[in-house]
Every structure is written in C-alpha cells, then in structure tokens.
Amino acid sequence: MTLNQEAFKKILKEQGLKVTNQRLLVLEVLEKHRGEHMTAEDIYELVKVDYPEIGLATVYRTVQLLLELQLVDRINLDDGCVRYEIGTLIEGEEGKHHHHHLICKSCGKVWSFEDDLLEELESYIERKTDFHVLDHELKFYGQCKECAERESAEKRK
What we know:
alpha+beta, Fur_C, zinc, 44% helix, zinc ion binding, Dna Ligase, domain 1
C-alpha cells in the first residue's frame, strides 16, 4: 500500500500540522524513488525541479518531520551520508521490520534484501531475556558479482 497525497494530508492534519507543497513534494519524491536510499541533497535536487524556490534547509526540516511521523526511515550505510526511504508504516505493515541491506565494499552499490529471517532469533531473545525486540537493522558487507568477476579477470592478466 502506498501513501497517497490525501492520506498524507490527513496525517498532517491529525498531528495539527500544516499541509504544504514542500511536504507533499518531498514525500512524493521519496515515493517515486522507493528503494533508492536517498540523501537530503538527492531529494532536494528532485524537488526543486517542480518547486525551484525550495531551499535545502526546508528539505532537511521536512525529512525530519517525516521521520518523527514515522513516514520515512533513516538509513546509515556507513558511507558518511544519512539516507532516507519511505517507511514501513507507509507500506501499511505496522510492526514489520525494515528490510536489510547488502553493501558491496568494492563499488559501494547497495541492494535491499526483503526477507526477514530473524523472527525466530527475536523470539528466542525475548524468551531468554524478557527483552521485547521492536525492530532491528542488518547490513551485509561483501562483494557484488560484477566486482568479483572484474577482480578475478584482473588477477588472470
């Protein structure tokens, strides 16, 4: 389920917040680029195409607001940049865990991995420690197929 503008307007109003073009455009950009792990600067560049008078600070404030409303998720891929993507609550799966990320150490490309195989581990942790796991984040570091093939070809030379 995606969040359309009407649903987003309703959420803003319920929170006592103004519905602004900037807020709608930032959310729309994130929705259109689902799965791309965008920086605030990436979002800004795309929003200013339709709304040239917007400032980068406005995008940062809007993303922060969307984080607080749990409409976007913040992702740290250990590359020095904070990235954002449409949140799991927008997808209509409250309680669903974030997907995991596969990060190539050679080229830096990032893939999302949707399968969540840690539910059994979370249940075990809860039984063993009485600690209720609300969420988790998992990153796998390695080498993508293309980089591995390129490295192998260079070694054969």
